[in-house]
Design a protein that fits this description.
Shape: elongated
Strand order of the largest sheet: 1-2-3-4
Largest sheet: 4 strands, antiparallel
Number of helices: 16
Oligomer: single chain
Order of helices and strands: HHHHEEHHHHHHHHEEHHHEEH
Length: 443
């Protein structure tokens, strides 16, 4: 085989050499027999460079004027066009960024729908997912429904670098698994960046966020407000009855809807006043337990999940037991020491805050509030014992942290810094954080 390959190469080389030699011979013959023949006619007629050129009068008038005008026009074009081009460069750069943002967002939306929406819900509005609790040996303990948080305010508390870390490496012991290649997941670095951009595109505005936080507080006190205000409770019952009795009468249904909206608006106003009249620590308790905007998801055991009961829904799935119900209490009693006690602030993903732990960690309420405001930073100590470990372990609740842990890396599409140079606010106000700290320091 080697000999055959060698002879083939040799034959090909010989053929090329023959073609080159024959071609060179033809070139020599052509030059001798044809190109070298004697000239016909005078040299002046045959040689273009020997022909008479323009006269001095023509060169120094129309020809020179044409050259000068052409040069002047060229200079004007350059002088006007280049600055105009430079002036348009920021717009082109912005257009490219917007185009890239749109492309990232579009591809990220597809990835989210394919890989994330089954847990986080459509549009990142939150959902539930099946999960199992195991003991230290990996043995099954209980089946649960994990309440997966909405992602519409994530970048108010976590930097883009922290979200990137969570996407890459997951968030054990929660059901959030690694999705990025660095953590062994199926997504490339580009796909993770596209997901981050999509998450940025669904973030609420500051006003919407403020409304969401307040709505969560109102939902917690609604029953107490109605129990303490009998006339308002009766108005609500009457409005609901009017809606139910309207039937197919469009006019009656519209009037009933207006009546119900008026009552609900009054309940909201009374609830807001009720919350304002609470002691600081009592408001802090509401804020502490305010879902994704609060602290209990990480610091209270079992706050973010619900047991599934032995009964089945008509659709065939297990019943999700209401937290604090008799059925849930029965499951807890049956499991005994296999699951943590549901103690407020007793520790879960985050540390235990009870038995004076926060007083030992932070000597003053001001230092405690500062930590809740900024959260943990990579390599930056806090309080008396804490050492920042980054990765979004303790998010920032009082400040939009931007690229807090990114070092020299600057995100392509920043969320916290707005076009006018201002910075978005945090999830909670300074007074709300002070209320939370008042509650935590009393645990």
């Amino acid at each position: 085989m080697h000999l055959l390959a060698a002879s083939t190469q040799r034959n090909l080389g010989m053929a090329i050499a023959v073609v080159a030699i024959v071609g060179f011979a033809i070139y020599l013959i052509y030059n001798v027999l044809w190109a070298g023949r004697g000239e016909r006619g005078s040299e002046v007629e045959l040689a273009p460079n020997r022909k008479p050129y323009l006269s001095d009068e023509e060169l120094e008038t129309s020809k020179l004027d044409l050259a000068l005008v052409s040069g002047l026009v060229t200079l004007v074009i350059i002088g006007v066009a280049l600055p105009l081009y430079w002036l348009g460069e920021p717009g082109r750069q912005q257009g490219y960024l917007e185009y890239s943002r749109d492309q990232f967002t579009s591809r990220g939306a597809g990835l989210f729908e394919e890989s994330c929406s089954s847990c986080h819900g459509g549009g990142g509005l939150g959902g539930t997912t099946d999960h199992t609790i195991t003991d230290d040996n990996g043995n099954f303990v209980a089946a649960i429904k994990w309440e997966v948080p909405a992602l519409t305010t994530t970048l108010y508390r976590f930097s883009e670098e922290e979200v990137r870390h969570i996407l890459n490496y997951g968030r054990p012991p929660t059901p959030m698994q690694p999705w990025g290649a660095p953590g062994g997941g199926p997504m490339t670095t580009q796909q993770v960046e596209e997901l981050i951009q999509y998450i940025q595109s669904i973030q609420l505005s500051p006003d919407e966020l403020e409304g969401e936080v307040l709505a969560g507080l109102i939902a917690q006190v609604r029953d107490d407000v109605l129990a303490a205000n009998t006339p308002l409770s009766q108005q609500l019952d009457e409005a609901n009855a009017a809606v139910a009795n309207a039937g197919g009468d469009d006019a009656a249904a519209e009037a009933a809807a207006r009546q119900l909206a008026t009552v609900e608006s009054t309940i909201t106003e009374v609830s807001e006043q009720y919350i304002r009249n609470l002691a600081s620590a009592d408001r802090g308790e509401l804020l502490f337990n305010n879902g994704v905007y609060g602290c209990a998801r990480c610091h209270t055991p079992r706050d973010s999940w619900r047991f599934t009961g032995p009964e089945e829904t008509p659709g065939g799935g297990p019943v999700v037991l209401t937290k604090g119900s008799d059925a849930e209490a029965a499951v807890v009693a049956q499991l005994g020491n296999l699951i943590p006690a549901d103690i407020p602030g007793g520790g879960g993903f985050g540390p235990n805050l009870t038995n004076g732990a926060t007083l030992r960690q932070f000597e003053s309420a001001e230092g405690h509030e500062g930590f809740v405001t900024i959260g943990s930073q990579e390599g930056v100590g806090y309080g008396n014992f804490g050492q920042g470990d980054g990765g979004g372990q303790m998010p920032a609740f009082g400040a939009c942290v931007g690229d807090r842990d990114s070092g020299d890396r600057s995100p392509i599409f920043g969320f916290c810094t707005l076009e006018d140079g201002s910075t978005r606010p945090g999830t909670l106000t300074a007074s709300q954080i002070a209320d939370i700290v008042a509650y935590e320091r009393g645990l």
